[in-house]
Amino acid sequence: MATFHYSGSAFYYNDQAIRLISGAIHYFRTLPEHWEDRLIKLKACGFNTVETYVAWNLHEPKKGQFDFEGMADVVRFIEMAGGLGLHVIVRPAPYICAEWEFGGLPAWLLADSDMRLRCFHKPFLDHVDAYFDVLLPKLKPLLCTNGGPIIAMQIENEYGSYGNDKRYLTHLKDSMISRGIDVLLFTSDGPEDAMLQGGMVPGVLETVNFGSRPVEAFNKLREYQPDAPIMCMEYWNGWFDHWSEEHHTRPADNVAEVLDEMLSLGASVNFYMFHGGTNFGFYNGANCHTLESYEPTITSYDYDALLTESGETTPKYDAVRKVIAKYVDIEPCELPAPAAKKAYGRLQMKEQTSLTANLDRISTPIHSAYPETMEKLGQGYGFIHYSTFITGPRPKDEFFIQDLRDRAQVFLNGQFAATLDRMHPEVKFEFEVPAEGLHVSILVENLGRTNYGPFMRDCKGITEGVRFGRQFLSEWTTYTLPLTDLSGLKFEDLSEQTEPSFFRSTLVVDEPCDTYLSLEGWTKGVVFINGFNLGRYWNIGPQKTLYVPGPLLKQGDNEIVIFELHGTSEPAVTFVDQPDIG
């Protein structure tokens, strides 16, 4: 048994003063086969602690259906860290931000039109408590007070950037304590008056998040919490990328300089991120700072961190290790050998099939008077297909998808007609309807729910309705397309692509290694390898390759399926041994 607490300006592990030098690694952004490799590299860099969020939407994808296996096995990740002699900070708040889909909140919350998020709203709290009833008993045996590695847990994340509901924060605190969580509880907020005032809770340690100017940040924290240790819970040593932006980087010497300043002040620190990993599947989040802005995050979560997306050490790793060595004795620790990389070369797609030809094979039609959102239809992620008929004749008028979330391809009588995009609301689409009428179909992609800020109530699909001119259109047929099971697809020979289509081929592998999939010539879509959703690609960049971890491959035949929304200059891809992230 052990205790972790603070007295005055110092943390103590049992009776020994300790400075936390921690790094964030998200178990859900890295394959389990790679967890140990990343954790060993963390320890070898001089860190004594690992921090991770816990993603509610990963563990309860449908209400009452829980998953703690494979990439969701948070218990195994924490036990592995403890086995390496690392302390663990866990941030299991209902909301985590993390540039993760919906900030970790499960999409099914939005099926309730009256749901209020992150506040003292009983239906929301009931869901949180039901989740805690399952999650916290798994974490309780891992607390340091029970002989485990967990020394601290967070009750909410950057709440002062969102609200000031102290009853809500107190409820979360009490919910954890009543379920046996007796380690240090904390919150983290930006070092600003409003954020600290909104996010602090009596009896809970406050920490601050920033990327620079530590003296200024810690002075602000001390104004509100003068008799406690100072800790940066998120030292932003890199940054994330949105589609169509340039790749963010930060010089290693600048990161090391700010860290040196922090440690010279006696502060503890948690690097966000030590290792970023990947937003596999449809789990990337998005930013929406105003109603008119929307910026989805790319598949890579490399974050320009100390380890690359594939786990390689960087100059930033070496620079940080040198600074840490000035303050603590770093135990000798041999780094694992770099993961083998292989360029498997060019792979020609062999088969193809259109989405519309397979709608009834991979989904079931739903008929309704008006288009429903994904959440109302029990769908979390992916795509959704709507269709209806407009009678004619009608003169040219504008076609509106009212409150589109997020990107729609519109087809008239099966022919592609327009792309309407929440990211480009200025685009207008007009057409006339002939006497025989027009069949209209719309494929909408959920590009990722907002993970931060005031516009998190981010339902997906068509959220208001569809109009031709002033008239709302009725009588819709809808297919939900989460793309979790593609076994029903019926493939044929390659042909000219005229609509969203699936392509399939087989990669023969002699030795499974890490690799990168280059999709040069392709436009936009999703890649599946042996049934695993690798994530999205998009030719607007900055990401040009998708990381393929070696454990996803097997010796022999490997199925590659690509869902391409628009078209490719050539139905072939290339496996290379170096990433291209712009």
Automatic annotation (TrEMBL):
Domain of life per record: Bacteria
Keyword Hydrolase: yes
InterPro entries listed in its UniProt record: B-gal_1-like, BetaGal1-like_ABD1, BetaGal_gal-bd, Galactose-bd-like_sf, GH, Gly_Hdrlase_35_cat, Glyco_hydro_35_CS, Glycoside_Hdrlase_35
Gene3D superfamilies: Galactose-binding domain-like (2.60.120.260), Glycosidases (3.20.20.80)
Domain Beta-galactosidase galactose-binding stretches: 500-558
Record key words, sorted: Glycosidase, Hydrolase
Pfam families cross-referenced by the UniProt entry: BetaGal_ABD_1, BetaGal_gal-bd, Glyco_hydro_35
Domain Glycoside hydrolase 35 catalytic: 11-326
Chain ranges of the Beta-galactosidase 1-like first all-beta domain: 371-481
Sequence similarity: Belongs to the glycosyl hydrolase 35 family.
Stored PANTHER family: BETA-GALACTOSIDASE RELATED
Protein name per the record: Beta-galactosidase
Lineage per the UniProt record: Bacteria, Bacillati, Bacillota, Bacilli, Bacillales
Encoding gene per record: bgaC
